[in-house]
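[SOLVED] Need 3D model of a two-part complex

Original post:
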Amino acid sequence: MGFKAAGIACGLKKSGKLDLALVYSQLPAKASAKFTTNKIQAAPVIFNKKLLKQNRTFRAILVNSGNANSFTGREGLKDAEEIACVLGEASGLKKESILLASTGIIGRRLPLAKIKAGIPKLVLGLSHSGLDKVKKAILTTDTFTKEATAQFNLGKHKITVCGIAKGAGMIAPRMATMLGLIFTDARITQKALQKALGIAVENSFNCITVDGCMSTNDSVILLANSAAGNPQIEQGRNFNAFLSALNTVCLRLAKMIVKDAEGATKFIKIKVRQAKNFREAKAVALQIANSNLFKTAVYGENPNFGRIVAAAGASGAQIKERNLKIKVSSLEKKEINVTVSVGSGKADAVVYTSDLTPEYVKINAQYT
Amino acid sequence: MGFKAAGIACGLKKSGKLDLALVYSQLPAKASAKFTTNKIQAAPVIFNKKLLKQNRTFRAILVNSGNANSFTGREGLKDAEEIACVLGEASGLKKESILLASTGIIGRRLPLAKIKAGIPKLVLGLSHSGLDKVKKAILTTDTFTKEATAQFNLGKHKITVCGIAKGAGMIAPRMATMLGLIFTDARITQKALQKALGIAVENSFNCITVDGCMSTNDSVILLANSAAGNPQIEQGRNFNAFLSALNTVCLRLAKMIVKDAEGATKFIKIKVRQAKNFREAKAVALQIANSNLFKTAVYGENPNFGRIVAAAGASGAQIKERNLKIKVSSLEKKEINVTVSVGSGKADAVVYTSDLTPEYVKINAQYT
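Solution:
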């Protein structure tokens, strides 16, 4: 695919686990990204947004876990710029071609010395199989790594879309994320790349919720480096094949995040049907998905459907009691399907979530 | 005060505890009420709203716990009408002078026979000290009864405002309630009564949240029966004295509900200062108050202030990182004060909430 990667433990995590990673594109790559809509944005988010406005191609993403570099003010932004500079010098890449991502505790300065000391090791360690280490190095409270790949052919050219993600708590829609890093060797126009990412994120990472809590660091970054040598994908040409592969990767990653939700014992799919429009369908689904009372009832395998009724009615969507129909699959299974028919139109939406358990409370009572 | 009351156990609660109650005004009383804004409204809410539009004075409130009579359709509304009729016959009161309230499980028909059998006992049991039983009969998962009283003098007339409430879970603003029944012997105009209740509810029951889950039954009903014989209170005359007493009662009850929050170990006051306007101040306070991550951190006595930052930034209010200041009192105490200065204006808001504990999850995993 024309990407190399590396991951190391540089001491940001007390556990000694991997916590610093680099993904490197052997060819200049176009980039598109989606970031948190939180008003407080982490330094790497601010850093990337500025770069993405100015620059046309990118070569690397440097990621750390264990520290979010968020709510760290001007100093935090300077720290971000400094590590990009250090990587630029160590790798020979222009510092403007380097994107950043951080995840972990909010409100503490990055331990710069540790990261600086780690960067040359990352550069030396780059390899074609390095993504296995990157997907470990970006984890925080996650219990498993998250990777998804989809391929398709354009004539004789095989095109790959490969993504990794982290996320288990502080997961809420818009952006519903976490970090998601997606790589493709497709040759594709900037416009088509952005459009595809927008659609794919809306239908995947923006359709999951664990706790309704929106992070300051959420980022999904997509790099496309043209290594497949295919005829250029445009909005009107071969776009759907690419979008379909990207959709597949994003949705698989999003579902993995929900399955890894902190303390969760159940994976819940909520489908809202017959709503006035997509916005209302999603609002109803999210209100149910974020209802602590619904989530605890699922944990207790207690079919308290009145809580679904109350949540649907509180969503702001137009709902009439006599048209509302609710179907819930057996709560004793690991995967639960909830279908809510609103009966006021033709729009559907699907949202994925988890149950709320005593374990979630314990994990988050002790974090830091 | 010119009110009598009674409470009995008629078998709605399996535990055999009190579950049916009647409050009776010896004089015709003006009424004002606030109800849930949930699109799904329980039968007694629909019943009361219709009556309050048509009727000018009221004589009684019949309340049951153990069953919400919600999401019960036309049958549920007929059930409500039928028990009002039965009470009318048993008491000699016009059925149009009777208001209703129900609380408990959603989606099940009322056990009519039990209630009908209980009504004559209630009528026979009415007494001046009966409110002690009413405040028990309206409880569900509450662990203690909630009552507050305030008095003031207008010339030689002593005026009393007395309220009771229930609520411990499914507590979210607009309406942030529960049931609240408030009685006063004041002589007051209908307009002044409504205005005072609107202000008092906005600053009390609409400023608390336990779990962000909005009920279908929330009702605050205020009866004023003129028994004090005072010169009539109007919007421009003696209004503030009455409002102040009503505010005191509502705020005390609201705080008691938060203190009794399901599984809670902490009482949290969140003050947001220097917001652009009251709406934004309240939005920030509520976003923090409803953040599971914030609430679990308080439970764990873990001063993870990044979660306050993330919640404030997700509230939709205009917030600049450099102006945001956060102060949190010692988390080891039972009562916690959080002060968030937004630095974008002059408006303040205060919201009360509780922590999120494994016990909350257990209570709600097993309810029904």
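Edit: Chain A is about 35% helix and 25% strand.
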